[in-house]
Amino acid sequence: MQQFKKAYQDDALEVAVYGASPVGLIVLLYEGAIRAIQQAKVLMKNERHSEKTHMINKASDIVEGLRVALDHSHDANLSMNLEDLYIYVKFRLGVANMKNDPEILDEVANLLSVILPAWQEVAKTQHANQLSSQKTAP
User: Fold this and answer.
1) Other C-beta atoms within 10 Å of 56: how many?
2) Number of domains in the chain
3) What is the chain's alpha carbon radius of gyration, rounded to the nearest angstrom?
4) Which of 29, 53, 55, 109 sits CB 3.0–4.6 Å from 40 for a disulfide?
5) Is residue 61 part of a domain?
6) Ranges of H-type helices in 20-101
């Protein structure tokens, strides 16, 4: 049964990724990073160190992907602030991993969770605009 659940989750993720706009992908990445951090915290508490490290590395890789994908040509101030945040989050994830500190994981998950609703709202607005432009197109 576990294999079927994983297969379903993989298929659902693939559908979400292929159907997502660029902003929708950012939302998926934020959600994935937060989920990896939460899983790392559980693994940390259960002293499953190699698995915890894997999940922290996964979150760090996602955050690095978000960082390198920043477009500094649009709103340079915003993108620089996001870049600083992503660098800080990656640093703190490394510290949390070395110190086995679940409070640091809570801190970085909270930072990402605070920003996630803004990205979700942008994705919703873009989707609504896309739908309305499709309705008015001949």
Assistant:
1) 24
2) 1
3) 17
4) 55
5) yes
6) 22-45, 49-68, 76-99
Closest-CA residue to 66 (of 27, 111, 9): 27
Structural domain includes residue 138 = no
The pLDDT value recorded for residue 1 is 44
Q: Average pLDDT in the 11-33 region?
A: 76
Q: Is the dihedral of CA 70, 76, 78, 81 positive or negative?
A: positive
Burial 22-50, CB ≥16 within 10 A → b, else e: ebbbbbbbbbbbbebbebbbebbeeeeee
CA trace torsion 75, 80, 81, 82 (10° rounding): 90
Contacts of 121 (CB under 8 A, 6+ apart): none
Residue 4 has pLDDT above 80, yes or no: no
Q: What CATH number should be reported for the domain holding residue 102?
A: 1.20.120.340
Query: Which residue type occupies 103?
Result: E
**Full domain range(s) for residue 33:** 26-113
Record the pTM: 0.83
In a domain, 13, yes or no: no
Assigned token pair, 101: 């500190």
